[in-house]
Amino acid sequence: MADLKLTGVEKAYGEVKVLRDINLDIKTGELIVFVGPSGCGKSTLLRMIAGLEKITGGTFTIDGERMNDVPPAQRGIAMVFQSYALYPHMTVRDNMAFALKIAKKPQAEIDAAIEKAARILQLTPYLDRLPKALSGGQRQRVAIGRSIVRDPKVYLFDEPLSNLDAALRVATRIEIAQLKEQMPNSTMVYVTHDQVEAMTLASRIVVLAGGGIAQVGTPLELYERPENEFVAQFIGSPAMNLTAGEVVATGAQTTIRLENGGTAVSIVPTAAADLGLKVNVGVRPEDLVEATGAAIFEGTVEITEALGEVTLLYLKRDAKGSQVIAKLPGIRPELRHSTVRLTADPAKVHLFTGGKSLLYR
Ligand code: ADP
Ligand code: MG
């Protein structure tokens, strides 16, 4: 078992704080994904957990034991990097055995560990090959195998798929999901900037932004109930549409008049005191449907992109050119240059004020 706990963790390089007040409880068996824009501190946070980077403030524990000053090799952690750097002159078997040989483990134990790792990673047929005779995905699996043989309690992955081509990324992503299933008692922390990887692999996602945690939750919690505009627009593709408006009716449902026309209704409740409140109305492209009655958005379709199962519409709403993206089912190129009216189920209409969701007030 390995429960990880970060309390008030921060990282400063000299005067510059790149991470501040990180509080996170990670339970045994979870696969936690850190996502966020480039440079937001994902790798730094992972490296602090690994012990490769000094923790400059706060506390990090594994199973209640303080780890801040414990050297990396004694934390029971294995880290898999983006560049897998196998020894080119060694076979797959020898690459995986290397750390165990250095640690002077008995040969029988080494053989058993390699056999088990090879089985989990489907590498058994390749054990006697050199890395140059493997595909990129197979090499990445060998790199993971080098970790598995050490039987760590915690696995850390830093963008392990980013060097692979698109098809291989998908295949290897599914392999990592299967790997996790086979090791239900290991704890995994996985860094990526790819939100599809985050959505498909994570038991919980940690969205990092501006040196702090923007939200922690299951993939669907982040998708359905984002706490702030950053998470709302970071999760989902194309990003959620955000449009300024003003609350014109309150109660169990809220009615908002949008700037430059259109009316939206949200199931997010408001109080009389909120009449006149300036809000941003958020609607995901996939939640927009063609309106028969009142419309939230009306405009001219400037561009259509037919992706096969869906068509993306780029709608110009008004003279100022404010744009809305809709994702309609099917192939709809005929909508180009036409005027469309779109609405959404009030349950899918998000409201934000000062960047924060009204749901979490
Ligand atoms: P991510 O992995 O999310 O792309 P990093 O964790 O690599 O981001 O970096 C976070 C921030 O810390 C970046 O702004 C980066 O410039 C800064 N940083 C990383 N390493 C150092 C260092 N050794 N000295 C100063 N700043 C650093
Ligand atoms: Mg990084």
What key attributes describe this structure?
21 strands; Rossmann fold; binds adenosine-5'-diphosphate; binds magnesium ion; OB fold (Dihydrolipoamide Acetyltransferase, E2P); 23% helix; 6-stranded antiparallel sheet; 6-stranded mixed sheet; 361 residues
Architecture overview:
It is a single chain. With 361 residues, this protein is of the alpha+beta class. It folds into two domains: 4-234, Rossmann fold (3-Layer(aba) Sandwich), CATH 3.40.50; 241-357, Beta Barrel (OB fold (Dihydrolipoamide Acetyltransferase, E2P)). The chain is 23% helix and 34% strand. The strands form four sheets. It has a six-stranded mixed beta sheet with strand order 6-7-8-3-9-10, sandwiched between helices. A six-stranded antiparallel beta sheet has the order 13-12-11-14-20-21. Strand 20 (350-353) and strand 21 (356-357) form a beta hairpin. The longest helix is centred in the middle third of the chain and has 17 residues, at 166-182. The relative contact order is 0.11. Magnesium ion binds next to helix 1.
